[in-house]
Amino acid sequence: MTLNERRTVVERGRPSGGELARRVVVLIFGLIQILIGLRIVLLLLDAREANALVRGILDLSQVFVSPFEGILRTDALRSRGSILDIAAIVAFVGWTIIELIAIWIVGIFRREPA
């Protein structure tokens, strides 16, 4: 194996800085989307808010949903105990759009080898 071949193998083994930044962006926004998705499901299923895990997910996801509350006239639809959190659905779409913009911005600065 020549020196040039060794460099190629090593370079292919590690992601570039731009690729690493893209992966971090996808990870962070993926975690936000999972939290919001769990919030939607838990409220639809009328999960017990007294449960520590449920309360933790609802409280943590509220941080990401609150900027999107009030965009529509109705933030939630209620039927008996179930709640369709419309603000959370809007937040899910909003964070996905922000993620796409962030990935696009990271892509501008990526350098691919020739």
Task: Please supply descriptive tags for the structure shown above.
mainly alpha, two-stranded antiparallel sheet, 67% helix, elongated
**Coarse shape:** elongated
Residue fraction in strands: 5-15%
> What is the alpha-carbon Rg in Å?
20 Å
- Name the poorly predicted regions: none
Structural class: mainly alpha
Outline the biggest β-sheet.
Answer: 2 strands, antiparallel
Q: Estimate the helix proportion, in percent.
A: 55-70%
Mean pLDDT: 88
* Element order: H for helix, E for strand: HHHEEH
Number of strands: 2
Q: Provide the spatial order of strands within the biggest beta sheet.
A: 1-2
The tally of helices reads 4
Terminus-to-terminus distance: 22 Å
**Count of all domains:** 1
Protein described:
The protein has one domain. It has a two-stranded antiparallel ribbon. It has 114 residues and is mostly helical. It is 67% helix and 7% strand. The chain is elongated, with a radius of gyration of 20 Å. It has four helices and two strands.
Which secondary structure elements does this structure contain, and how are they paired or packed?
Blueprint: H1 3-13, H2 17-44, H3 52-65, E1 76-79, E2 82-85, H4 86-108
Antiparallel strand pairs: 1-2
Helix pairs in contact: 2-3, 2-4
